[in-house]
Structures are given as structure tokens and as C-alpha cells.
Design goal:
CATH architecture of one domain: Roll
Helix content: 10-25%
Radius of gyration: 30 Å
Largest sheet: 7 strands, antiparallel
Shape: elongated
Strand content: 25-35%
CATH topology of one domain: Pdz3 Domain
């Protein structure tokens, strides 16, 4: 056995060696941090532009109400004269202006910005870094991703363009540089790091924002977010701030999402997106358990467009999409973006969970059609006394459909199932089931009379299931619900 002195010396040698390695790593990391962004900023600033828009606001047709003043008040004549001046027919229309940022992506004069920067604009002006101005035409825009492409004619002037980078390679902690035109001051550079990835801020269906602490203020919208090599990895779009100014929480559209959209807008003037033809919902642990899944990952198919690609590939409501084109669907919100980015017409493998087992279907991705007009919500009918039969242990009363109930709840003639006529405190209410909802299936079997549903509940309890899977429809949505059951009977 070695002496304590030898052990101590070995420990000291090992510790010193470890400290030396750590010091070398720290020194290397310190060398990677730039001492200055001056050279990079000088190179990139000429590609970043200021965008100003003008919008004509017509005189209001409705005259604002006159404020109430005490009789004889001097303010009465003042406001009367002011309102008459503002609303007279021959008054000149007002012109509103706004400012934003953008950047040049090729020498031909194409400029990228946010859609909200140029929305409703009558005139768009692009001001270059050398203060020369150009009238811009709108090539195309996409409200879902808040992106727009403009075109200017630079004449013989040589434009400086910036390249796209791969935002998928950006890591939390990487240096980034934001350039824009905050508050109309002109080209302004701020630096920070990537604070987070894949942020969903409920801005649109394809949210996948890069979060950064590089200062982004009003007027920065549409400006580029650069990596340390001068490539565009994001488009500055939004901030989180109680005051309206930067508090170090800014969001940028990643280049990997923006570039395909920009390419489509340049080529077609619109965005062409992949389309599966399904309505999906999140898979919570209760739904996953009721379907025999060990994890609540994937996108649950609630309904299928009758003429869509999914229907042609034999997908069914109740299928859980686990993988699309080899990419894991870890959460529901990822699927729309992955499908949208897939080439139209591509035959794509889709791995699903159906009836307790995995299977793979091939789907030919279609093109997302124009959004249909919104169907007006049926007016609410006056409530009448609940009718039907109570489903024990659920707190809900259901009834077969008849003309009176269809009229009462605004249901279509082709709707089938059991309509919920009343809901008391209980499992159904906890899951958001309301009067007017229609239960179509229970345990993946159709229900057409209350006895069908009661039998399904009793069978689930007898087999010690914790939840009963219901398929529920209303005029706004079709979804699956994992209905909690009362304490199950033991076999």
C-alpha cells in the first residue's frame, strides 16, 4: 500500500494537470470572444437599409362626439371648431408615416423586411447607408411568418448584399450582432448572444424564434441578426417589454425558416407551403395513456380533410404522428412547420401510432390552399331545460340528435353522435366539455344513443382504465378528450 506522502503527491500532480487544462480551455474561449466588432460592423452596415412608409388616412365618416363642458365654457367653442375642421368634406386626407429596417440580399436590389413594417403602406421608400433614397415596389409578403420582399432599382449603383447563414448551427451563447434603425436615428449596431432557441411567442403558426439579448428597439423590425462571421441568421421582429424599449428580450425569425419563404416570394410573389390536410391537437399525458403510448410526444390527428393528401394516404382520425420525413415530432407545434417546409409533391414517409402499434404510411405532400372564408358562428339559441340521459360519473347529460336540438345548438344536418345538453361539475366539465358539444366516438367506437356511451364508460371502468377516449365536435373544432373515470373496478 503506497504511503500517504506518495498519494498526496499524486493527487497534487493530477490536480495541477487538471488546472492547467482548464486554464488552456479558458484562454482559448477568451481568444474566441471578439475584442471589437468594428471591422465586422464596417463590412455589414452598407447592406442594412432604412424603410419608411407612407399611408393615407381618409377623413372619418363618423363625427366624434363633442365632450361635455359646463354651459358657457371657452372649451366648447374651441372643440367645436376643431371637430368641424377635422371632419369637413373638403379637408385634406392625413398621411401617416412609419419607420423600420431591412437588408439587401442581392445586388439586383431585393430587400427583406418584416411584413408589419410595410403593411397597408401606399408608398415605400428605402434609404441606403449613404443616405440615397429609392422608391420600392412590393414583390410579395407572407403574414404567417411576418416577412416581406421589396425591390428597388439601384441603377448603376453597386449594392452591398449580405449572405444567409445556417441558423440551425447557432447555439445558445453564440455572439450575434443586430443592425437596424431604432427610433429613426440611422444605422445602429448592437451586440449580444443567442439567449434561447425555438421560442413560441404566439405570433403565428410557424413560431420558432431565436431569442437574443442584443438591444432591439422600435424601428429595428426587419433588420438582420448576424453571426460572428457576418452571415444573416435571423430577422429581428419582436421584443418583450413592459415599457416598449429593449430590456434584453428580443426575438428574430431564424434564417432556416425565412430563406425558403423569401425564395418563394421572389419567384412566385407568394409563399408555397407543403400541406398534409389534417387538423391536429396536442397529446397530453392522459390522452397518451388512453391510447397506449408511454410518452406524450407526437401530434394527434383530430380530423382529416376529405380531399387532402392525408386522406389519400389512408391516415385516420385518432392516429398519432410520431415522425414526418424522418424527423421526430416531439410536440404538436413542430409538425406544421416541418410539413410547410417540405417540397410540394414529395412522397414522404409518416410514422404513426394506430391501435397500439407503430406503422408507416407514404404521403404525397400537397400545396397549402388559400384559407377558406371563415364560417360565421351560429347565433346562440336560448337555453331550454336540459333533456336526455345522464352519463353516470361524468357530470354530463347527452341526447340523440333531433331537429330541435340541431336548431338549438346550430348543428349541421350531417352531424352525427350524441349532443351534450347539460354539464354539471365533474369529469366532463374539467375537460372543457360544454352543452352543444357532440360526442362522436367513445373508445374509438361510434356512439348514437346514450346507452352506447354509458356502456363504453362501464366497459372502460371494468377493464381498470383511468380514461375513456372521446372524440368530440363542435362548430369551432373537432378534438379528442381523455375523459377521467371514477375509481375503476378491480378484476
Amino acid at each position: 500500500m503506497p504511503s500517504p506522502m506518495i498519494v498526496s503527491r499524486r493527487w497534487m500532480v493530477t490536480t495541477i494537470a487538471a488546472l492547467a487544462i482548464f486554464a488552456q480551455s479558458a484562454a482559448a474561449m477568451a481568444r474566441e470572444a471578439p475584442g471589437s466588432f468594428a471591422d465586422l460592423a464596417e463590412k455589414l452596415l452598407p447592406a442594412v437599409v432604412n424603410i419608411s412608409t407612407t399611408q393615407t388616412i381618409k377623413n372619418p365618416e363618423r363625427v366624434p362626439e363633442m365632450p361635455q363642458f359646463p354651459p358657457g365654457s371657452p372649451f366648447e367653442d374651441f372643440f367645436k371648431e376643431f371637430l368641424e375642421r377635422q371632419t369637413r368634406p373638403d379637408a385634406a386626407p392625413k398621411r401617416a408615416t412609419s419607420l423600420g429596417s431591412g437588408f439587401i440580399i442581392d445586388a439586383g436590389g431585393y430587400v427583406v423586411t418584416n411584413n408589419h413594417v410595410i403593411a397597408d403602406a401606399d408608398e415605400i421608400t428605402v434609404t441606403l447607408h449613404d443616405d440615397t433614397t429609392h422608391k420600392a415596389t412590393l414583390v410579395g409578403r407572407d403574414s404567417k411568418t411576418d416577412l416581406a420582399v421589396l425591390k428597388i432599382d439601384p441603377g448603376k449603383k453597386a449594392l452591398v448584399a449580405v449572405p444567409w447563414g445556417n441558423s440551425d448551427d447557432s447555439r445558445i451563447g453564440d455572439w450575434v450582432l443586430a443592425i437596424g434603425n431604432p427610433f429613426g436615428l440611422g444605422g445602429t449596431v448592437t451586440a449580444g448572444i443567442v439567449s434561447a432557441r425555438a421560442r413560441d411567442i404566439n405570433a403565428g403558426p410557424y413560431d420558432d424564434f431565436i431569442q437574443t439579448d442584443a438591444s432591439i428597439n422600435r424601428g429595428n423590425s426587419g433588420g438582420p441578426l448576424f453571426n460572428s462571421t457576418g452571415e444573416v441568421v435571423g430577422i429581428n421582429t419582436a421584443i418583450f417589454s413592459p415599457s416598449g424599449g429593449s430590456i434584453g428580450i428580443g426575438f428574430a425569425i431564424p434564417a432556416s425558416l425565412a430563406k425558403p419563404v423569401i425564395d418563394d416570394l421572389k419567384q412566385f410573389g407568394r409563399t408555397r407551403r407543403g400541406w398534409l390536410g389534417v387538423r391536429i391537437q396536442s397529446l397530453d399525458p392522459e390522452l397518451a395513456e388512453s391510447m397506449g403510448l408511454s410518452e406524450s410526444k407526437g401530434a394527434l390527428v383530430a380530423s382529416i380533410n376529405a380531399d387532402g393528401p392525408a386522406a389519400k394516404a389512408k391516415l385516420k382520425p385518432g392516429d398519432v404522428i410520431l415522425k414526418f420525413d424522418g424527423r421526430d415530432i416531439t410536440e404538436m407545434r413542430k409538425l406544421p412547420r416541418i410539413v410547410a417546409e417540405t417540397a410540394i409533391g414529395k412522397k414522404t414517409p409518416v410514422e404513426i401510432w394506430r391501435d397500439g402499434k407503430r406503422m408507416t404510411l407514404d404521403v404525397a405532400v400537397g400545396e397549402l390552399p388559400e384559407e377558406p372564408e371563415e364560417v360565421a358562428k351560429a347565433p346562440e339559441k336560448p337555453q331550454t331545460q336540459a333533456q336526455g340521459q345522464v352519463v353516470p360519473g361524468t357530470g354530463m347529460t347527452v341526447s340523440p340528435l333531433n331537429p330541435a336540438l340541431r336548431e338549438r345548438f346550430g348543428l349541421e344536418d350531417d352531424t352525427v353522435g350524441l349532443v351534450v345538453t347539460d354539464v354539471k361539475d365533474g369529469a366532463a366539465a374539467d375537460k372543457g366539455i360544454k352543452p352543444g358539444d357532440v360526442v362522436i366516438e367513445a373508445g374509438n367506437k361510434p356512439v348514437r344513443n346514450p346507452a352506447d356511451l354509458i356502456k363504453a364508460v362501464e366497459a372502460a371502468k371494468a377493464s381498470s382504465q383511468k380514461f375513456l377516449l372521446l372524440r368530440v365536435e363542435n362548430p369551432q373544432a373537432l378534438r379528442y378528450v381523455a375523459l377521467p373515470l371514477a375509481e375503476s373496478k378491480k378484476k
